[in-house]
Amino acid sequence: MVKTLLKHVKEFKKDSLMTPMFMVLEVLMETLVPFLMASMIDNGVEVGNQEYIFKLAAVMVVLAVIGLWAGIMGGKHGAKASTGFARNLREAMYNNIQTFSFSNIDKFSTAGLVTRLTTDVTNIQNSYQMILRMCVRAPINLICAMIMAFIINAKVASIYLVAVVVLACFLGLIIKFAMKHFKQVFKKYDDLNASVQENITAQRVVKAFVREDYEIDRFHKASGNIYNMFVKAESILAFNSPIMQFTVYTCILLISWVGANMIVGGELTKGDLTSLLAYCMNILMSLMMLSMVFVMITMSIASGERICEVLNETPDIVNPEKPEYEVKDGSIRFENVTFRYNKNSERPVLDKINLEIKSGETIGIIGGTGSSKTSLINLISRLYDVSEGTVYVGGKDVREYDLETLRNKVAVVLQKNVLFSGTIMENLRWGDENATEEDCIRVCKQACADEFIQRMPDGYNTHIEQGGSNVSGGQKQRLCIARALLKNPKILILDDSTSAVDTATDAKIRNAFATQIPDTTKLIIAQRISSIQDADRIIVMENGCVDGFGTHEELLENNAIYREVYEAQTGGSGDFDENGGED
Protein backbone atom coordinates (compact mmCIF):
# COMPACT_ATOMS: atom_id res chain seq x y z
CA MET A 1 0.00 0.00 0.00
CA VAL A 2 2.74 2.46 1.01
CA LYS A 3 4.67 1.81 -2.20
CA THR A 4 1.54 2.36 -4.31
CA LEU A 5 0.74 5.65 -2.60
CA LEU A 6 4.27 7.06 -2.57
CA LYS A 7 4.58 6.61 -6.34
CA HIS A 8 2.30 9.63 -6.61
CA VAL A 9 4.52 12.04 -4.66
CA LYS A 10 6.25 12.65 -8.03
CA GLU A 11 7.34 16.28 -8.49
CA PHE A 12 6.98 16.99 -4.77
CA LYS A 13 9.89 14.75 -3.73
CA LYS A 14 12.11 17.81 -3.15
CA ASP A 15 9.57 19.38 -0.77
CA SER A 16 9.12 16.01 0.92
CA LEU A 17 12.87 15.87 1.60
CA MET A 18 13.26 19.53 2.57
CA THR A 19 10.52 19.36 5.20
CA PRO A 20 12.22 16.82 7.53
CA MET A 21 15.57 18.60 7.03
CA PHE A 22 14.10 21.85 8.36
CA MET A 23 12.40 19.93 11.19
CA VAL A 24 15.75 18.45 12.25
CA LEU A 25 17.33 21.93 12.21
CA GLU A 26 14.48 23.30 14.33
CA VAL A 27 14.87 20.48 16.87
CA LEU A 28 18.62 21.01 17.14
CA MET A 29 18.12 24.69 17.89
CA GLU A 30 15.49 23.91 20.53
CA THR A 31 17.67 21.23 22.12
CA LEU A 32 20.61 23.59 22.61
CA VAL A 33 18.55 26.27 24.38
CA PRO A 34 18.01 24.36 27.72
CA PHE A 35 21.70 23.35 27.72
CA LEU A 36 22.75 27.00 27.40
CA MET A 37 20.19 27.97 30.02
CA ALA A 38 21.83 25.63 32.53
CA SER A 39 25.19 27.20 31.80
CA MET A 40 23.68 30.69 32.17
CA ILE A 41 22.28 29.84 35.60
CA ASP A 42 25.40 28.09 36.90
CA ASN A 43 28.08 30.35 35.39
CA GLY A 44 26.18 33.61 35.09
CA VAL A 45 23.32 34.01 37.58
CA GLU A 46 24.96 32.05 40.43
CA VAL A 47 28.25 34.00 40.23
CA GLY A 48 26.72 37.31 39.11
CA ASN A 49 28.56 37.40 35.78
CA GLN A 50 26.31 39.77 33.84
CA GLU A 51 28.49 39.84 30.73
CA TYR A 52 28.29 36.06 30.45
CA ILE A 53 24.48 36.22 30.82
CA PHE A 54 24.19 38.75 27.96
CA LYS A 55 26.47 36.70 25.68
CA LEU A 56 24.50 33.51 26.22
CA ALA A 57 21.22 35.39 25.90
CA ALA A 58 22.33 36.73 22.49
CA VAL A 59 23.31 33.22 21.38
CA MET A 60 19.94 31.86 22.55
CA VAL A 61 18.08 34.56 20.62
CA VAL A 62 20.02 33.64 17.46
CA LEU A 63 19.20 29.94 18.02
CA ALA A 64 15.53 30.80 18.58
CA VAL A 65 15.38 32.86 15.35
CA ILE A 66 17.04 30.05 13.37
CA GLY A 67 14.61 27.56 14.93
CA LEU A 68 11.65 29.80 14.09
CA TRP A 69 12.80 30.19 10.48
CA ALA A 70 13.33 26.42 10.18
CA GLY A 71 9.84 25.79 11.56
CA ILE A 72 8.26 28.22 9.08
CA MET A 73 10.14 26.72 6.13
CA GLY A 74 9.29 23.21 7.26
CA GLY A 75 5.62 24.15 7.44
CA LYS A 76 5.73 25.75 3.98
CA HIS A 77 7.42 22.79 2.27
CA GLY A 78 5.29 20.31 4.23
CA ALA A 79 2.06 21.99 3.12
CA LYS A 80 3.23 22.07 -0.50
CA ALA A 81 4.27 18.40 -0.43
CA SER A 82 1.08 17.12 1.23
CA THR A 83 -1.36 19.14 -0.89
CA GLY A 84 0.54 18.21 -4.05
CA PHE A 85 0.52 14.56 -3.02
CA ALA A 86 -3.25 14.74 -2.46
CA ARG A 87 -3.76 16.39 -5.86
CA ASN A 88 -1.75 13.66 -7.58
CA LEU A 89 -3.71 10.92 -5.80
CA ARG A 90 -7.04 12.42 -6.86
CA GLU A 91 -5.86 12.81 -10.45
CA ALA A 92 -4.47 9.27 -10.53
CA MET A 93 -7.71 7.80 -9.21
CA TYR A 94 -9.86 9.91 -11.50
CA ASN A 95 -7.74 9.05 -14.55
CA ASN A 96 -7.85 5.35 -13.70
CA ILE A 97 -11.63 5.48 -13.26
CA GLN A 98 -11.88 6.84 -16.82
CA THR A 99 -10.21 3.65 -18.09
CA PHE A 100 -12.65 1.36 -16.27
CA SER A 101 -14.95 -0.85 -18.27
CA PHE A 102 -18.55 -1.23 -17.16
CA SER A 103 -17.58 -4.39 -15.26
CA ASN A 104 -14.90 -2.45 -13.33
CA ILE A 105 -17.35 0.32 -12.49
CA ASP A 106 -19.84 -2.27 -11.24
CA LYS A 107 -17.38 -3.17 -8.43
CA PHE A 108 -17.59 0.28 -6.83
CA SER A 109 -20.59 2.32 -5.78
CA THR A 110 -20.72 5.93 -6.98
CA ALA A 111 -20.86 7.13 -3.37
CA GLY A 112 -17.83 4.96 -2.52
CA LEU A 113 -15.77 6.49 -5.32
CA VAL A 114 -16.76 10.02 -4.22
CA THR A 115 -15.69 9.24 -0.63
CA ARG A 116 -12.35 7.91 -1.83
CA LEU A 117 -11.71 11.02 -3.96
CA THR A 118 -12.60 13.41 -1.12
CA THR A 119 -12.59 12.23 2.51
CA ASP A 120 -10.04 9.43 2.09
CA VAL A 121 -7.57 11.59 0.14
CA THR A 122 -7.91 14.38 2.74
CA ASN A 123 -7.03 11.88 5.49
CA ILE A 124 -3.94 10.78 3.55
CA GLN A 125 -2.98 14.42 2.95
CA ASN A 126 -3.17 15.26 6.67
CA SER A 127 -1.27 12.12 7.62
CA TYR A 128 1.47 12.77 5.07
CA GLN A 129 2.03 16.28 6.40
CA MET A 130 2.16 14.99 9.98
CA ILE A 131 4.60 12.26 8.96
CA LEU A 132 6.91 14.77 7.24
CA ARG A 133 6.81 17.17 10.18
CA MET A 134 5.79 15.65 13.50
CA CYS A 135 6.92 12.11 12.73
CA VAL A 136 10.41 13.50 12.07
CA ARG A 137 10.40 16.26 14.65
CA ALA A 138 9.05 14.20 17.57
CA PRO A 139 11.47 11.23 17.54
CA ILE A 140 14.50 13.46 16.77
CA ASN A 141 13.47 15.80 19.59
CA LEU A 142 12.99 12.82 21.91
CA ILE A 143 16.39 11.33 21.03
CA CYS A 144 18.27 14.64 21.28
CA ALA A 145 16.61 15.54 24.57
CA MET A 146 17.33 12.05 25.94
CA ILE A 147 21.00 12.26 24.92
CA MET A 148 21.39 15.71 26.51
CA ALA A 149 19.64 14.50 29.67
CA PHE A 150 22.00 11.52 29.99
CA ILE A 151 24.99 13.82 29.36
CA ILE A 152 23.86 16.02 32.24
CA ASN A 153 22.96 13.20 34.65
CA ALA A 154 22.32 9.56 33.75
CA LYS A 155 20.60 8.73 37.05
CA VAL A 156 17.88 11.36 36.63
CA ALA A 157 17.58 10.71 32.89
CA SER A 158 16.72 7.06 33.55
CA ILE A 159 13.36 8.29 34.85
CA TYR A 160 12.60 9.50 31.32
CA LEU A 161 13.51 6.12 29.88
CA VAL A 162 11.02 4.29 32.10
CA ALA A 163 8.31 6.84 31.24
CA VAL A 164 8.93 6.40 27.51
CA VAL A 165 8.59 2.61 27.72
CA VAL A 166 5.39 2.83 29.80
CA LEU A 167 3.79 5.37 27.46
CA ALA A 168 4.78 3.38 24.36
CA CYS A 169 3.01 0.29 25.74
CA PHE A 170 -0.17 2.20 26.56
CA LEU A 171 -0.09 3.93 23.17
CA GLY A 172 0.20 0.59 21.35
CA LEU A 173 -2.85 -0.78 23.18
CA ILE A 174 -4.91 2.35 22.47
CA ILE A 175 -4.12 2.27 18.75
CA LYS A 176 -4.83 -1.47 18.50
CA PHE A 177 -8.37 -1.08 19.88
CA ALA A 178 -9.14 2.15 18.01
CA MET A 179 -7.98 0.82 14.63
CA LYS A 180 -10.90 -1.55 14.03
CA HIS A 181 -13.42 1.27 14.53
CA PHE A 182 -11.65 3.58 12.08
CA LYS A 183 -11.67 0.82 9.44
CA GLN A 184 -15.45 0.59 9.72
CA VAL A 185 -16.21 4.30 9.81
CA PHE A 186 -15.31 4.99 6.17
CA LYS A 187 -17.76 2.36 4.96
CA LYS A 188 -20.39 4.36 6.84
CA TYR A 189 -19.25 7.46 4.93
CA ASP A 190 -20.15 5.62 1.71
CA ASP A 191 -23.67 5.06 3.04
CA LEU A 192 -23.98 8.75 3.96
CA ASN A 193 -22.80 9.92 0.54
CA ALA A 194 -25.16 7.47 -1.15
CA SER A 195 -28.07 8.88 0.85
CA VAL A 196 -27.18 12.48 -0.07
CA GLN A 197 -26.55 11.66 -3.73
CA GLU A 198 -29.81 9.76 -4.20
CA ASN A 199 -31.84 12.41 -2.42
CA ILE A 200 -30.47 15.35 -4.39
CA THR A 201 -30.63 13.52 -7.74
CA ALA A 202 -34.20 12.38 -7.14
CA GLN A 203 -35.42 15.53 -5.38
CA ARG A 204 -38.44 15.88 -7.68
CA VAL A 205 -39.55 12.32 -6.96
CA VAL A 206 -39.09 12.86 -3.22
CA LYS A 207 -41.32 15.92 -3.31
CA ALA A 208 -43.86 14.32 -5.64
CA PHE A 209 -44.35 11.46 -3.18
CA VAL A 210 -44.03 13.71 -0.07
CA ARG A 211 -41.15 11.60 1.27
CA GLU A 212 -39.09 14.39 2.78
CA ASP A 213 -39.52 13.04 6.32
CA TYR A 214 -38.47 9.56 5.22
CA GLU A 215 -35.34 10.91 3.51
CA ILE A 216 -34.48 13.07 6.53
CA ASP A 217 -34.82 10.01 8.77
CA ARG A 218 -32.64 7.98 6.37
CA PHE A 219 -29.94 10.66 6.40
CA HIS A 220 -30.20 10.93 10.18
CA LYS A 221 -29.54 7.18 10.52
CA ALA A 222 -26.56 7.27 8.14
CA SER A 223 -25.13 10.31 9.93
CA GLY A 224 -25.84 8.71 13.30
CA ASN A 225 -23.89 5.59 12.32
CA ILE A 226 -20.81 7.70 11.58
CA TYR A 227 -21.30 9.55 14.87
CA ASN A 228 -21.51 6.30 16.85
CA MET A 229 -18.42 4.81 15.19
CA PHE A 230 -16.38 7.96 15.82
CA VAL A 231 -17.58 8.11 19.44
CA LYS A 232 -16.37 4.55 19.99
CA ALA A 233 -12.99 5.28 18.39
CA GLU A 234 -12.52 8.64 20.10
CA SER A 235 -13.58 7.19 23.48
CA ILE A 236 -10.62 4.83 23.25
CA LEU A 237 -8.28 7.60 22.09
CA ALA A 238 -9.47 9.78 24.97
CA PHE A 239 -7.37 7.63 27.33
CA ASN A 240 -4.26 8.97 25.61
CA SER A 241 -4.42 12.45 27.17
CA PRO A 242 -4.93 11.52 30.87
CA ILE A 243 -2.24 8.81 30.68
CA MET A 244 0.12 11.32 29.07
CA GLN A 245 -0.64 14.02 31.68
CA PHE A 246 -0.25 11.55 34.54
CA THR A 247 3.14 10.47 33.19
CA VAL A 248 4.31 14.07 32.67
CA TYR A 249 3.45 15.20 36.19
CA THR A 250 4.85 12.01 37.73
CA CYS A 251 8.14 12.59 35.90
CA ILE A 252 8.29 16.22 37.01
CA LEU A 253 7.67 15.26 40.65
CA LEU A 254 10.22 12.45 40.60
CA ILE A 255 12.86 14.60 38.86
CA SER A 256 12.23 17.48 41.26
CA TRP A 257 12.48 15.20 44.29
CA VAL A 258 15.54 13.25 43.08
CA GLY A 259 17.18 16.39 41.66
CA ALA A 260 16.64 18.39 44.88
CA ASN A 261 18.29 15.66 46.94
CA MET A 262 21.20 15.54 44.48
CA ILE A 263 21.63 19.34 44.65
CA VAL A 264 21.76 19.14 48.43
CA GLY A 265 24.33 16.33 48.10
CA GLY A 266 26.37 18.36 45.60
CA GLU A 267 25.82 15.86 42.77
CA LEU A 268 23.74 18.26 40.65
CA THR A 269 23.64 22.00 40.04
CA LYS A 270 20.52 24.17 39.91
CA GLY A 271 21.14 24.88 36.24
CA ASP A 272 21.36 21.17 35.49
CA LEU A 273 18.02 20.55 37.25
CA THR A 274 16.40 23.35 35.24
CA SER A 275 17.69 21.82 32.00
CA LEU A 276 16.54 18.35 33.01
CA LEU A 277 13.03 19.65 33.69
CA ALA A 278 13.02 21.38 30.28
CA TYR A 279 14.23 18.17 28.60
CA CYS A 280 11.56 16.26 30.51
CA MET A 281 8.87 18.42 28.90
CA ASN A 282 10.55 18.08 25.49
CA ILE A 283 10.59 14.28 25.75
CA LEU A 284 7.02 13.93 26.93
CA MET A 285 5.70 16.49 24.44
CA SER A 286 7.46 14.53 21.71
CA LEU A 287 5.64 11.42 22.88
CA MET A 288 2.36 13.31 22.78
CA MET A 289 3.10 14.42 19.20
CA LEU A 290 3.93 10.84 18.25
CA SER A 291 0.65 9.64 19.73
CA MET A 292 -1.21 12.19 17.58
CA VAL A 293 0.71 11.02 14.51
CA PHE A 294 -0.11 7.38 15.22
CA VAL A 295 -3.78 8.22 15.68
CA MET A 296 -3.83 10.03 12.34
CA ILE A 297 -1.92 7.21 10.65
CA THR A 298 -4.37 4.73 12.16
CA MET A 299 -7.25 6.59 10.53
CA SER A 300 -5.42 6.99 7.24
CA ILE A 301 -4.47 3.31 6.88
CA ALA A 302 -8.11 2.48 6.21
CA SER A 303 -8.29 5.40 3.75
CA GLY A 304 -5.06 4.34 2.06
CA GLU A 305 -6.35 0.80 1.53
CA ARG A 306 -9.55 2.13 -0.08
CA ILE A 307 -7.56 4.49 -2.36
CA CYS A 308 -5.26 1.65 -3.41
CA GLU A 309 -8.29 -0.44 -4.37
CA VAL A 310 -9.09 2.15 -7.04
CA LEU A 311 -5.47 2.76 -8.08
CA ASN A 312 -4.73 -0.96 -8.40
CA GLU A 313 -7.94 -1.82 -10.23
CA THR A 314 -6.90 -3.02 -13.67
CA PRO A 315 -9.29 -2.30 -16.56
CA ASP A 316 -10.87 -5.52 -17.83
CA ILE A 317 -10.99 -4.13 -21.34
CA VAL A 318 -7.76 -2.84 -22.89
CA ASN A 319 -6.35 -2.21 -26.34
CA PRO A 320 -4.64 -5.11 -28.13
CA GLU A 321 -0.90 -4.91 -28.78
CA LYS A 322 -1.40 -4.00 -32.46
CA PRO A 323 -4.87 -2.42 -32.67
CA GLU A 324 -6.83 -1.75 -35.83
CA TYR A 325 -7.58 1.93 -36.41
CA GLU A 326 -10.14 1.66 -39.20
CA VAL A 327 -13.66 0.25 -39.10
CA LYS A 328 -14.41 -0.83 -42.64
CA ASP A 329 -18.23 -0.73 -42.48
CA GLY A 330 -21.19 -1.20 -40.15
CA SER A 331 -21.67 -4.94 -40.58
CA ILE A 332 -22.17 -6.92 -37.35
CA ARG A 333 -21.84 -10.64 -36.67
CA PHE A 334 -22.36 -12.60 -33.46
CA GLU A 335 -20.73 -16.03 -33.56
CA ASN A 336 -21.68 -18.44 -30.74
CA VAL A 337 -21.65 -15.55 -28.23
CA THR A 338 -22.20 -16.34 -24.56
CA PHE A 339 -21.96 -13.62 -21.92
CA ARG A 340 -21.97 -13.50 -18.12
CA TYR A 341 -21.66 -10.41 -15.93
CA ASN A 342 -20.20 -12.61 -13.22
CA LYS A 343 -17.74 -15.24 -14.43
CA ASN A 344 -18.91 -17.63 -11.72
CA SER A 345 -22.59 -17.44 -12.67
CA GLU A 346 -24.05 -20.77 -13.72
CA ARG A 347 -26.63 -19.27 -16.07
CA PRO A 348 -25.36 -16.88 -18.76
CA VAL A 349 -27.08 -13.57 -19.54
CA LEU A 350 -26.73 -14.28 -23.27
CA ASP A 351 -26.51 -17.87 -24.48
CA LYS A 352 -25.07 -18.96 -27.85
CA ILE A 353 -26.15 -15.95 -29.89
CA ASN A 354 -25.65 -16.21 -33.67
CA LEU A 355 -26.60 -13.17 -35.75
CA GLU A 356 -25.48 -11.56 -38.98
CA ILE A 357 -26.40 -7.94 -39.81
CA LYS A 358 -25.44 -6.24 -43.06
CA SER A 359 -23.96 -2.75 -43.17
CA GLY A 360 -26.68 -0.09 -43.54
CA GLU A 361 -29.53 -2.30 -42.30
CA THR A 362 -32.10 -1.06 -39.83
CA ILE A 363 -32.60 -3.72 -37.16
CA GLY A 364 -35.32 -3.62 -34.54
CA ILE A 365 -34.84 -5.39 -31.23
CA ILE A 366 -37.79 -6.28 -29.03
CA GLY A 367 -38.22 -8.40 -25.95
CA GLY A 368 -39.55 -8.45 -22.42
CA THR A 369 -37.91 -6.94 -19.37
CA GLY A 370 -34.80 -8.95 -18.52
CA SER A 371 -34.51 -10.56 -21.96
CA SER A 372 -30.96 -9.11 -22.27
CA LYS A 373 -31.56 -6.64 -25.11
CA THR A 374 -29.21 -4.05 -23.57
CA SER A 375 -26.61 -6.71 -22.77
CA LEU A 376 -26.62 -7.71 -26.45
CA ILE A 377 -25.90 -4.23 -27.81
CA ASN A 378 -23.32 -3.46 -25.09
CA LEU A 379 -21.06 -6.12 -26.61
CA ILE A 380 -20.98 -4.37 -30.00
CA SER A 381 -19.10 -1.29 -28.77
CA ARG A 382 -17.13 -3.49 -26.35
CA LEU A 383 -18.54 -1.95 -23.21
CA TYR A 384 -18.28 -5.52 -21.95
CA ASP A 385 -16.28 -8.43 -23.36
CA VAL A 386 -17.91 -11.71 -24.33
CA SER A 387 -17.40 -14.75 -22.11
CA GLU A 388 -17.37 -17.10 -25.11
CA GLY A 389 -17.59 -16.66 -28.85
CA THR A 390 -16.82 -13.59 -30.96
CA VAL A 391 -18.49 -10.31 -31.93
CA TYR A 392 -17.42 -8.96 -35.33
CA VAL A 393 -17.81 -5.35 -36.51
CA GLY A 394 -16.73 -4.44 -40.03
CA GLY A 395 -15.58 -8.03 -40.51
CA LYS A 396 -13.11 -7.97 -37.57
CA ASP A 397 -13.26 -9.10 -33.97
CA VAL A 398 -14.10 -6.09 -31.79
CA ARG A 399 -11.17 -7.06 -29.54
CA GLU A 400 -8.79 -6.28 -32.41
CA TYR A 401 -9.82 -2.61 -32.63
CA ASP A 402 -8.43 0.41 -30.85
CA LEU A 403 -11.11 1.14 -28.23
CA GLU A 404 -11.42 4.82 -29.09
CA THR A 405 -11.72 4.05 -32.80
CA LEU A 406 -14.40 1.41 -32.25
CA ARG A 407 -16.49 3.52 -29.89
CA ASN A 408 -16.27 6.55 -32.15
CA LYS A 409 -17.74 4.47 -34.97
CA VAL A 410 -20.37 2.76 -32.80
CA ALA A 411 -22.57 5.49 -31.32
CA VAL A 412 -24.77 4.33 -28.45
CA VAL A 413 -27.70 6.25 -26.99
CA LEU A 414 -28.01 4.38 -23.71
CA GLN A 415 -31.18 3.50 -21.86
CA LYS A 416 -30.51 6.18 -19.24
CA ASN A 417 -30.07 9.46 -21.10
CA VAL A 418 -27.54 11.82 -19.55
CA LEU A 419 -27.00 15.50 -20.29
CA PHE A 420 -24.32 17.56 -18.60
CA SER A 421 -24.54 21.05 -17.16
CA GLY A 422 -23.72 23.56 -19.88
CA THR A 423 -25.33 24.88 -23.06
CA ILE A 424 -27.14 22.72 -25.60
CA MET A 425 -24.30 23.38 -28.05
CA GLU A 426 -21.70 22.19 -25.50
CA ASN A 427 -23.69 19.02 -24.88
CA LEU A 428 -23.99 18.32 -28.61
CA ARG A 429 -20.24 18.73 -29.10
CA TRP A 430 -19.64 15.74 -26.86
CA GLY A 431 -20.28 13.88 -30.13
CA ASP A 432 -17.64 15.92 -31.97
CA GLU A 433 -15.75 18.68 -30.20
CA ASN A 434 -14.82 20.27 -33.55
CA ALA A 435 -18.36 20.28 -34.95
CA THR A 436 -19.57 23.56 -36.49
CA GLU A 437 -22.86 25.17 -35.58
CA GLU A 438 -24.23 24.06 -38.95
CA ASP A 439 -23.30 20.44 -38.16
CA CYS A 440 -25.09 20.66 -34.82
CA ILE A 441 -28.22 22.13 -36.39
CA ARG A 442 -28.20 19.43 -39.08
CA VAL A 443 -28.15 16.50 -36.64
CA CYS A 444 -30.74 18.20 -34.43
CA LYS A 445 -33.08 18.41 -37.41
CA GLN A 446 -32.53 14.69 -38.05
CA ALA A 447 -33.38 13.95 -34.40
CA CYS A 448 -36.37 16.35 -34.47
CA ALA A 449 -34.71 18.41 -31.72
CA ASP A 450 -34.28 21.63 -33.73
CA GLU A 451 -37.99 22.40 -33.52
CA PHE A 452 -38.06 22.75 -29.71
CA ILE A 453 -34.56 24.26 -29.47
CA GLN A 454 -35.59 27.15 -31.73
CA ARG A 455 -38.50 27.91 -29.40
CA MET A 456 -36.17 28.34 -26.43
CA PRO A 457 -35.19 31.95 -25.53
CA ASP A 458 -31.47 31.37 -26.11
CA GLY A 459 -31.77 28.68 -28.77
CA TYR A 460 -28.66 26.51 -28.96
CA ASN A 461 -27.05 28.57 -26.18
CA THR A 462 -29.79 27.62 -23.72
CA HIS A 463 -28.23 26.39 -20.47
CA ILE A 464 -28.93 22.78 -19.51
CA GLU A 465 -29.06 22.14 -15.77
CA GLN A 466 -27.22 19.19 -14.24
CA GLY A 467 -28.77 15.94 -15.48
CA GLY A 468 -30.96 17.82 -17.97
CA SER A 469 -33.53 18.64 -15.29
CA ASN A 470 -34.89 21.67 -17.19
CA VAL A 471 -35.91 19.73 -20.32
CA SER A 472 -38.56 17.04 -20.72
CA GLY A 473 -37.81 13.34 -21.11
CA GLY A 474 -38.62 13.41 -24.82
CA GLN A 475 -36.47 16.51 -25.40
CA LYS A 476 -33.58 14.90 -23.51
CA GLN A 477 -33.85 11.78 -25.67
CA ARG A 478 -33.80 13.77 -28.89
CA LEU A 479 -30.75 15.78 -27.78
CA CYS A 480 -28.92 12.55 -26.93
CA ILE A 481 -29.79 11.10 -30.35
CA ALA A 482 -28.49 14.27 -32.05
CA ARG A 483 -25.29 14.07 -29.98
CA ALA A 484 -24.75 10.47 -31.15
CA LEU A 485 -25.42 11.38 -34.81
CA LEU A 486 -22.74 14.07 -34.61
CA LYS A 487 -20.14 11.29 -34.29
CA ASN A 488 -20.98 10.28 -37.88
CA PRO A 489 -21.04 6.63 -36.79
CA LYS A 490 -21.04 3.50 -38.92
CA ILE A 491 -23.34 1.87 -36.36
CA LEU A 492 -26.04 3.74 -34.41
CA ILE A 493 -27.63 2.01 -31.42
CA LEU A 494 -30.77 3.42 -29.78
CA ASP A 495 -31.50 1.59 -26.54
CA ASP A 496 -35.19 2.38 -25.98
CA SER A 497 -34.23 5.97 -26.71
CA THR A 498 -37.56 7.13 -28.15
CA SER A 499 -39.78 5.80 -25.38
CA ALA A 500 -40.65 9.33 -24.20
CA VAL A 501 -41.27 10.63 -27.73
CA ASP A 502 -44.74 10.71 -29.25
CA THR A 503 -45.46 8.34 -32.15
CA ALA A 504 -45.55 11.13 -34.76
CA THR A 505 -42.09 12.42 -33.77
CA ASP A 506 -40.84 8.84 -33.54
CA ALA A 507 -41.93 8.30 -37.15
CA LYS A 508 -40.17 11.51 -38.25
CA ILE A 509 -36.92 10.41 -36.60
CA ARG A 510 -37.09 6.98 -38.27
CA ASN A 511 -37.80 8.60 -41.63
CA ALA A 512 -34.81 10.95 -41.18
CA PHE A 513 -32.59 7.95 -40.42
CA ALA A 514 -33.73 6.19 -43.59
CA THR A 515 -33.11 9.19 -45.85
CA GLN A 516 -30.19 11.03 -44.17
CA ILE A 517 -27.97 8.19 -42.97
CA PRO A 518 -28.81 5.21 -45.23
CA ASP A 519 -25.30 3.71 -44.98
CA THR A 520 -25.30 3.65 -41.19
CA THR A 521 -26.35 0.40 -39.52
CA LYS A 522 -29.16 1.21 -37.10
CA LEU A 523 -30.11 -0.96 -34.12
CA ILE A 524 -33.29 0.19 -32.39
CA ILE A 525 -34.44 -1.34 -29.12
CA ALA A 526 -38.09 -0.50 -28.53
CA GLN A 527 -41.14 -1.55 -26.55
CA ARG A 528 -43.55 -0.31 -29.26
CA ILE A 529 -43.79 -2.49 -32.33
CA SER A 530 -44.81 0.62 -34.30
CA SER A 531 -41.26 1.94 -33.73
CA ILE A 532 -39.61 -1.04 -35.42
CA GLN A 533 -42.13 -2.68 -37.75
CA ASP A 534 -40.66 -0.84 -40.75
CA ALA A 535 -37.14 -2.07 -39.94
CA ASP A 536 -35.40 -4.32 -42.43
CA ARG A 537 -35.40 -7.10 -39.87
CA ILE A 538 -36.39 -7.53 -36.23
CA ILE A 539 -34.74 -9.53 -33.45
CA VAL A 540 -37.05 -11.04 -30.82
CA MET A 541 -35.21 -11.66 -27.53
CA GLU A 542 -36.40 -14.09 -24.86
CA ASN A 543 -34.43 -15.12 -21.73
CA GLY A 544 -31.07 -14.22 -23.24
CA CYS A 545 -31.67 -16.06 -26.49
CA VAL A 546 -32.76 -15.03 -29.99
CA ASP A 547 -36.29 -16.38 -30.29
CA GLY A 548 -36.86 -14.95 -33.77
CA PHE A 549 -35.12 -12.91 -36.46
CA GLY A 550 -36.86 -11.71 -39.59
CA THR A 551 -39.09 -9.08 -41.14
CA HIS A 552 -42.28 -7.83 -39.52
CA GLU A 553 -44.39 -10.02 -41.80
CA GLU A 554 -42.23 -13.11 -41.28
CA LEU A 555 -42.36 -12.79 -37.51
CA LEU A 556 -46.12 -12.29 -37.51
CA GLU A 557 -46.42 -15.53 -39.39
CA ASN A 558 -43.74 -17.64 -37.67
CA ASN A 559 -43.05 -16.21 -34.17
CA ALA A 560 -45.66 -16.71 -31.46
CA ILE A 561 -44.12 -14.16 -29.04
CA TYR A 562 -43.98 -11.40 -31.63
CA ARG A 563 -47.50 -12.16 -32.86
CA GLU A 564 -48.86 -12.07 -29.30
CA VAL A 565 -47.23 -8.72 -28.59
CA TYR A 566 -48.44 -7.25 -31.87
CA GLU A 567 -52.00 -8.33 -31.21
CA ALA A 568 -51.87 -7.01 -27.63
CA GLN A 569 -50.57 -3.60 -28.77
CA THR A 570 -52.90 -3.20 -31.72
CA GLY A 571 -55.69 -4.35 -29.42
CA GLY A 572 -55.09 -1.29 -27.24
CA SER A 573 -52.79 -2.25 -24.34
CA GLY A 574 -50.06 -0.11 -25.88
CA ASP A 575 -47.01 -1.60 -24.15
CA PHE A 576 -44.83 -4.58 -24.90
CA ASP A 577 -44.29 -5.17 -21.20
CA GLU A 578 -47.34 -4.36 -19.12
CA ASN A 579 -45.23 -4.29 -15.97
CA GLY A 580 -42.78 -1.74 -17.41
CA GLY A 581 -39.21 -1.56 -16.19
CA GLU A 582 -35.78 -1.54 -17.73
CA ASP A 583 -33.55 -4.26 -19.11
Structure description:
α7 runs antiparallel to α9 (212-237). With 583 residues, the protein is of the alpha/beta class. It has 20 helices and twelve strands. Strands 6-9-10-3-11-12 form a six-stranded mixed sheet. Strands 2-1-4-5 form a four-stranded antiparallel sheet, with no helix packed on it. The longest helix is centred in the N-terminal third of the chain and has 49 residues, at 50-98.
What topology, given as strand order, has the largest sheet?
Answer: 6-9-10-3-11-12
How many runs of DSSP E, i.e. beta strands?
12
Terminal Cα span: 39 Å
Uncertain spans: 572-583
Helix content: 55-70%
Which range does the strand content fall in?
Answer: 5-15%
Q: Average pLDDT, to the nearest integer?
A: 84
- The gyration radius over C-alpha positions equals 35 Å
- What's the helix count? 20
Counting helices, strands and paired strands, the structural category is alpha/beta
Form type: elongated
Largest sheet: 6 strands, mixed
